[in-house]
Amino acid sequence: MTVVLDADGIRRAITRIAHEIVERNHGASGVVLVGIADRGDHLAYRLAAELRGIEGAVVPVGTLDITFYRDDIGLRAEAPEVHETRIGFDVTDRTVVLVDDVLFSGRTVRAAMDALVDFGRPSSVQLAVLVDRGHRELPIRADFVGKNLPTRRDQDVRVRVVEVDGEDAVLVEEAR
Question: Does residue 127 contact residue 143 with C-beta atoms inside 8 Å?
Fold first, then answer.
C-alpha cells in the first residue's frame, strides 16, 4: 500500500475545501453539510468545525445512509452494511453540500441525491470529496476536491479516519 495523504495532508485538504465552500457560497449562511456514511459524515463534521473557525457560523451537519438507494444492492454477494441516517434539520431551500471520502463511479453520489430528496427540496446540491480518483460511470463531478488522484480501475483507494480506523490516511492498494 502507498500512502498518498497523511493526517496533515487530510487536514490541509479539509481546510482548503472549507475555504472554497465559503468562497463559492459567499459565506456559510444557508449551507448545510450532509456526510455520506461511513466516512463522509466524519469528514463533514471536520468541515463544519473549519467553517465555524472561518465564518464564526454553526453549520448544521447530518449523516446520510444510502444503502437502500444503491442500484447494485441485489447484485453484491455480501450483505450490505447499514448505517443510521441522522438529518435533524430541513434541507428545503438550503444549499446542501454532500460530503464523501472518495468519488469513483458516481453511483454513491447518485444514490445520495435520491436519498436526500426524501428530506426536502434543496435550493442546490454541491459535492465535496476528499479524493477524486476518476473512472466515472455517471455524469457526476465534485465541486470541491481535496486531492485528484489518477488511478487504475483495478486499484483500491482506502480513506482511513481516526474516528473509525484510529488513524487518518489515504492509501492506494495495488490489485491482487
Answer: yes
Give alpha helix (H) positions in 26-147: 40-55, 107-116
| pLDDT (0 to 100) of residue 75 | 60
Q: What is the pLDDT of residues 33-50, one digit of tens each?
A: 999 998 999 999 999 999
The confidence band for 83, taking pLDDT boundaries of 50, 70 and 90, is confident
Q: Is the pTM of this model over 0.70?
A: yes
Grid cell at residue 1: 500500500
Q: To 10 degrees, the CA torsion angle through 156, 110, 78, 36?
A: 80
Distances (CA, A) of 56 to 15, 29, 34, 111: 14, 10, 19, 32
CA-CA distance, 70 to 110, in Å (whole number)? 8
- For residue 14, the surrounding DSSP H or E stretch is helix 7-25
Give CA–CA dist 115/110, Å, rounded.
9
